[in-house]
Amino acid sequence: MSAIRHALSIKREDDFAQWYQEVISAADMAEESGVRGCMVIKPWGYGIWERMQRLLDDRIKQAGVQNAYFPLFIPLANFEREAAHVEGFAKEMAVVTHHRLIADGEGGLVPDPAAKLEEPLVVRPTSETIIGDAMSRWIQSWRDLPLKLNQWANVVRWEMRTRMFLRTSEFLWQEGHTAHATAEEAKVETMRALEMYRAFAEEDVALPVIAGEKPENERFPGARETWSIEAMMQDGKALQAGTSHYLGTNFAEAANIRYQDREGGQELCHTVSWGMSTRMVGGLIMTHGDDDGLRVPPALAPFQVVILPMLRDKPEDAALLEYCEALRASLAGQSALGEPLRVLLDTRPGKAAAKRWDWVRKGAPVIIEVGGRDMENGVVSLLRRDALWDINTGKPAFENPTCEAAAQTVPTILAGMQSGLFTEARDRREANIIRDITDMAGLSEYYGEDQHRPGWVEVQWSKPSGEGLEAVISQLKALKLTFRNVPMNTPPADGSCIFTGKPAVERIYVARAY
Amino acid sequence: MSAIRHALSIKREDDFAQWYQEVISAADMAEESGVRGCMVIKPWGYGIWERMQRLLDDRIKQAGVQNAYFPLFIPLANFEREAAHVEGFAKEMAVVTHHRLIADGEGGLVPDPAAKLEEPLVVRPTSETIIGDAMSRWIQSWRDLPLKLNQWANVVRWEMRTRMFLRTSEFLWQEGHTAHATAEEAKVETMRALEMYRAFAEEDVALPVIAGEKPENERFPGARETWSIEAMMQDGKALQAGTSHYLGTNFAEAANIRYQDREGGQELCHTVSWGMSTRMVGGLIMTHGDDDGLRVPPALAPFQVVILPMLRDKPEDAALLEYCEALRASLAGQSALGEPLRVLLDTRPGKAAAKRWDWVRKGAPVIIEVGGRDMENGVVSLLRRDALWDINTGKPAFENPTCEAAAQTVPTILAGMQSGLFTEARDRREANIIRDITDMAGLSEYYGEDQHRPGWVEVQWSKPSGEGLEAVISQLKALKLTFRNVPMNTPPADGSCIFTGKPAVERIYVARAY
After folding, report:
1. What is the largest CA-CA distance in chain A?
2. In the CATH scheme, what architecture does the domain B298-418 have?
3. What ipTM is given for this predicted complex?
4. Residues of B in Cβ contact (< 8 Å) with A107
């Protein structure tokens, strides 16, 4: 049995962080831009993000939310107002102070001192305050409620330590902002958005997540409740992959978002915000990547099937191309996962084997190679990205269906791969959640320095707040742990608090996290 | 015969500029944001832009162009490099100089002097230079060519006088950037993009355009050739609605975009860029709007059919809603213009008549009202936005087809409206292009101060350059005219230059313009 050679130089188990960088580079997804903290999202990475946008946007529209677009620049006054209302207000933001460049007399350019803005503008880090301004203009009466808006946009948060897709100064996201007449309606929307993210993550990204509420210290500044979906990466760390915030009337008060109720009284609105970002692409990589590169869930693959004709720069190429084009057309006429198949016939110059490994590293779900002999026999050589290697021979596990059989079975293969990737990730997560640790000694041992344990621990706790909570957090910090969330639909607590020894009131996940 | 009352307070013929503002407000498309030069694009306006994005993006992808995303911030050095290469370099740009806010001690916030950037960053006004940097990394050999990229993004150009959709400091657009081995291939791409814009404008926006080359003085700074599509607004002014630039090797030299050819030599790439922006939404308004508000071409309408049940807050409402929901489902099962119908059942509170006029002003192509009596008779009351008034009675021209007939005929109505709007605009344009003016006296008389002539004039000219061209431009400026373009597929010149009297070499459009 020959050894399997993997398509990357670094294996996950050897150095997960390095492996992550190598996948991004080898799958041609993104690269550093040379601009501090900003990345270039290359076509394959951006194509995956576009698929995420399309599928999540469909869900957003189905919920009756309307897309709109608000200014990139936010006046300083909005942040002053917010700072007065919000503790923990983040200040690392890009500030525009001038609106013109002039020559410096030495061949360079400088901001023109004569074009200094009277009031600096901030590049939006999030849009609660500017959308709040619009809501205060647009909402007059109960008839205008609920108002449900969403924006797809770039935002900027000045980050000192960046990591592609996971933390960059500029990133892409959607931010939903809704206003409601009552706390009850706002909470229903908070949970609707959370459930939308859960379904999107699990059904479209094949990313098993745990939906639950963040504890007090992890709330979005100014929020009354923060809910999240949390996913376990292959190194056992947690990634927060989407959040939904019930903001109470805090932001409504700051932006003066009021409505006249049916009795003529003036009431504050209850607002909600929810967001998902390009961070999700990082989550996809760290969940589905393997030692050969990325594996893209078929629902998100820009191309689900790549056909590689083995061209030889000879007259026979014409017939081979015709054969491949017929296969492409036949596949493109099929549907999988509710949409027409996305098929690429890759005729770029280069050896078919080299191109095969390009597509393996990019994680195209199905690669179909066609050589002259295949054509003579009416067959193709089909490779599934989720079953790349023949474990007996150690070679790529090509199947050789007839052309017709390939066209017919690909939709089934893709549907199976979509659910298979999900199941694989869910089983891995379930195997790495520990539920039987009941004291700090156990927790400390599990995450001890000499351990590289990949898991999350579900603990029971008494949910202290204020100083009590701070004491708990410093206990966690010593182990480099953070709270993730209090999962929904979990049995009630029945033990003692792992931190305080008091009777527990709920179960909560702790983990190391991105 | 009763008088027709229009849904707007201002008529096009009375004050076109004011009418334009009123349509934007009455159709709920956009509003001033309070942030200098930036607008808020409201859901109906943004929905139209999303439809434009979807339809143009399909055309972009069909051409083998790949979407990607590049940083919002561009280092000053890129502009210094560009300034050295490009005359007419625009300097009105937003400059980021700090990355943190701190309290000023008086309850306000100021940029933190300790967080001043070593090198200021410019908010992208266009991305040639930053994408050029990426191209120089990504292109090594002839095998990497052509490289065809596109970006959907926000850009910022500090504008002193702004006008919603037509000229705002921040706007949304797509910018295509391609690199090629030869001038010939680059020119083919330049023309492909131009033809793509023509087809998109005419088929999707129902906007008749004239595709042609801009004269020297109207070229994009640094370009060798600039081509445009130009549309005539209802006031006779021209709107440049899309451009495609052949950049030669200018930008390749500045960014060092080189490739190794088949013989091993190092060659500069020839680059191309092309763009279309939210300006197109302004063009749509000024072309298809009427004295009742906007008329949205069905291909771009976020909702093509709006169903308004005449609810009375009574028990009978339930049956009426059921009847309307069945109609909605039946319509949503149909296709028009190659896509499933987009249908809204509008059950918001409010009187049906008031809601009808909302949708008239927004320009929904078909409005279907259903009252209790309609239901009893198995009919609906259908209003076409392109045939709103019964010219005999002066009342809204409701038709009363059966429910089944309505569902069957709506696709035909929409297809007819799409081509009808185009034909109407094209006929108006053709009636307002003057081709028989052969001297400056005639031009001067046509555009004289006491005239409000809505037309363009096609003149013949000798195409001078340098000082000769400047003299011509000042002649035009005196009449507030600009060159638009030299149309493709026009008979060769056969007369004398209107400006110089020399033998003419080509025909060119002059017009007042946005």
Report:
1. 83
2. 3-Layer(aba) Sandwich (3.40)
3. 0.96
4. 80, 84
